Amino acid sequence: TTEPYGKNGTTMSAAQVIKAAADLYRINPQVILVFLEKEQGLVTRTDCPDWRYNSAIGFGCPDNGSCSRATANFTAQIDYGVYHLRGYFDDTLTYVPYGVGSQTVLYNPDTRCSSSTVNIQNRATASLYSYTPYQPNAATLNWKLGSGPAVSSAYPSCGAFGNINFFIYFTNWFYTTYTDAY
């Protein structure tokens, strides 16, 4: 796909848009690629209708509502989304949901699904949780990590896959996201 991004209406390929945003906002382009996959499967899918590009990394697309028309194109998705990831990382936006330390994080936008405390250990993880503000519950973790079904007896639809998908894709495609400190 090509999108207007540069000055004077020039067009850029998707790769050029990703590279430009990565450089401008000082975000690893691997992070952007993983966001494209975890949100819409745009890295590995071959059947990508326009709506997938229009919500490429989920910016302005709340889990419990419709996507904003203002960000409904690939370039806007990359630009606004990566801008916000950087702002969450730097804590420079008006509202930054999560910081480093113990944070209460919901399992799902449905508040009946409850929450628990997450010990966010660095600003990159805080930025990820600020952008994708839900954690996987035990059933989701068991299913994604291959040790059981993704069904919670208390409330079956409480799983949130965004952050565990980020972890799995990033780790499988690039490298581990943590090191052994011992």
Helix tally equals 7
> Percent of residues in helical segments?
40-55%
What would you report as the Rg, rounded to the nearest angstrom? 17 Å
**C-alpha end-to-end distance:** 46 Å
Which blocks of ≥5 consecutive residues have pLDDT under 50? Answer: none
Strand order of the largest sheet: 1-2
Structural class: mainly alpha
How does this structure look, described?
This protein is mainly α. Helix content is 41%, strand content 10%. It has 7 helices and 4 strands, in the order E-E-H-H-H-H-E-E-H-H-H. The strands form 2 sheets. Strands 1-2 form a two-stranded antiparallel ribbon. A two-stranded antiparallel sheet has the order 3-4. A hairpin with an 8-residue loop joins strand 3 and strand 4. Helix 1 packs parallel to helix 4 and helix 2 crosses helix 7. The longest helix is centred in the middle third of the chain and has 17 residues. The radius of gyration is 17 Å and the shape is globular.
